[in-house]
Amino acid sequence: MNTVPTTDEAKVQAKRLRTALAAAGIDVGHSASLELLAKSHGLADWNTLIGTAGPAGRAGSRSGDPSGTGGNRATATSAVVPILRMFDWDKAQDFYVGYLGWTVDWGHRFEAHLPLYVQVTSPDGARLHLSEHHGDGTPGTAVLIEVADAAAVHAALATKDYSFAAPGLEEVPWGRTVTVHDPSGNRLTFLQADGDRARADRELPPIVTEVTIPLEPGAAFDLFTSFTWWVEYGREIGAPVTVSDEVAFENRQGRLPIGRVLHRHRPTHWAMTFTLAQDPATPTRLDVHFRPVDGGTRVRLEHGGWDARNGERRGKFNDWPVILGTFESAARAV
């Protein structure tokens, strides 16, 4: 019988593994050594190993071993546990334990002076790993935590004496949210999902802005797609603009791409992705239509591509009338 080690035994084995690899010139982080150890026991990951050992740290049997009581518990799990970077455990503990009301399940250091690695659990069973190890997570990570009652979460937090957070209760198209930031800048959003509207592929309506300019459609198209009229909003004064497959502001402090060109149909339609002040992994989209009218061209800008992945930022893009006002002024100066 090949028995899965207890949690404590596994941590000792992981330390030995990491030391042996270091001696061979192979440097692995704390979390990586735990994952490697779990796989050496034939398990999917470290979380599965812990689940197999059980909360009391008792050993279990490998999946498929009929002689052990833990035989059926060593199967792959669907749980995903984010690893968040932290820099100060005392501050993190004040936030997660004192403010959020979570509990510390366990913590580990390879030596007393080395970085700490901790698991914390919410009253509803959500788990997070917090790590002081370099390479374990990136500060500013966003985590979405589903809850049954966001209002209850908000009410509970409002009773806490914690001067570094005062979250609101927000209504978004896919549900109700409460968002807080931990001391290392990680963002935790508690979401009470609103049925089908929580689907990430459900798009929200575009932001639409229109303006009429005294140029014929071809000239309006050329002026708009040059982006030389764009002032501020990511572009330094007088900075050159590159428009090829990508639109970018060539600022003195560094090049700033704002999107990739999707469609050029002069003089009626221009489309591009839009990443300015957004996560490039979930870009939105600009569609600009040019229609001839008496005295010039009606320009209609549609800022779309909003869904559950990026929709929380939609309300921040309310300056399109100002931006297109600058475009209109440039057109009148031609």
TrEMBL record:
The keyword Protein biosynthesis does not apply. PROSITE patterns: VOC. The keyword Lipid metabolism does not apply. Residues 54-74 are annotated as: Disordered. Residues 76-193 form the VOC domain. Keywords: Antibiotic resistance. It comes from the Bacteria. Pfam families: AHSA1, Glyoxalase_7, Glyoxalase_8. GO terms for biological process: response to antibiotic. Residues 54-64 have a biased composition (Low complexity). InterPro entries: ASHA1/2-like_C, Bleomycin-R, Glyas_Bleomycin-R_OHBP_Dase, Glyoxalase_8, START-like_dom_sf, VOC_core. Belongs to the bleomycin resistance protein family. This is Bleomycin resistance protein. It comes from Occultella aeris.
